Amino acid sequence: MRKICPVCHESFEVKSTRRIYCSVRCRKLHHKEVYYDRERPIPIYEVGDKVLRTFVCRKCGLLVMVTSKTDKRTKFCSPHCERLYWKHPEKYRKEEEKFKQSQTDKEIVK
Asked: 0.85 cut: is pTM over it?
């Protein structure tokens, strides 16, 4: 049986009917396009919305208020910030430690 790859549009022979892509490279490229490169809307908060949880983004320091039960964010404000954070986590961990130290210093002064 022959199929056409949706990424490179090449014809290829399949051994299984479940196979969609001609190679691992095409499969990964398509997965990246579909799941990681698309723009995901960041929710806009309305006055009076019940806030379920709040957190500060570990990468950019933005205060995030989660109002939807389907919103699973707990550490990062966006997929972009998450990717950048995990590229160089040691850099941001040092910044987090400095921020926490400054917050405890402020509490001690009060």
From this structure: no
